[in-house]
Amino acid sequence: MKFFIVSLTIIAVVFIMLTLIGTQTHNKDQYSTKTAGVAKPDSVCFQLSAEAEKEIVRLGESVKVKVKLTNITDRRCLLTSINPLPYKIIVKDDSGKLRPKTEYLEKLEKYGPSSIFGQRAAPKEVFESNEIVNNLYDMSVPGTYSITFKRNVEAEPSGKRDEISSNTVKVKIVPAN
């Protein structure tokens, strides 16, 4: 238990340091936040999109979704990530009810992130990941599921946290026969 508390403390300190370093770097490699004495409004640097590998999946097969996080600006933007779950995933069945988490996801959340890091995303840079959604949420009943990804990102120039959402993808689970 003591090791767990020490580990979480170290992770929190590293996250705070990376945020501070990112803020200092942000001030150096961004243009001035003032133009003719007027402060520039915050803007979110990133766009999130999702695409299902297949729209129809047989029961027992993996529900794979490609997630793209794109820097949509012409400047470098701070991106902080918490692994193993950089995204919040919303999975709903065809009646609109949220699907329960799997035991696997419960364990991932219980034991916390394995790493926290920050980096500067180049202009127009794209980060892709492939998520197997039914490993994280119960999709064991045939039907149509709606899947949306969300992520917290920095709004620039203030550094305020903002949540962005992907498009919603629909996947139909059909019986294995």
- Kindly report the average pLDDT value: 79
Helix content: 10-25%
Series of H and E elements: HEEEEEEEEHEEEEE
Spans of at least 5 consecutive residues with low confidence: 12-40
- Counting DSSP H or I runs of 4 or more residues, the number of helices is 2
Can you walk through the features of this model?
It contains two helices and 13 strands, in the order H-E-E-E-E-E-E-E-E-H-E-E-E-E-E. The longest helix has 28 residues, at 2-29. The protein has a single domain (2-31, 43-174), classed as Sandwich (Immunoglobulin-like). Strands 3, 5, 8, 11, 12 and 13 form a six-stranded mixed beta sheet that branches. Strands 4-6-10 form a three-stranded antiparallel beta sheet, with no helix packed on it. Strands 1-2 form a two-stranded antiparallel ribbon. It is elongated and about 50 Å long. A hairpin with a 2-residue loop joins strand 1 and strand 2. It has helices spanning 2-29, 103-110; strands spanning 34-35, 38-39, 43-44, 46-52, 56-58, 64-71, 77-83, 88-92, 115-121, 126-132, 143-156, 160-165, 169-174. The relative contact order is 0.26. With 177 residues, it is of the alpha+beta class.
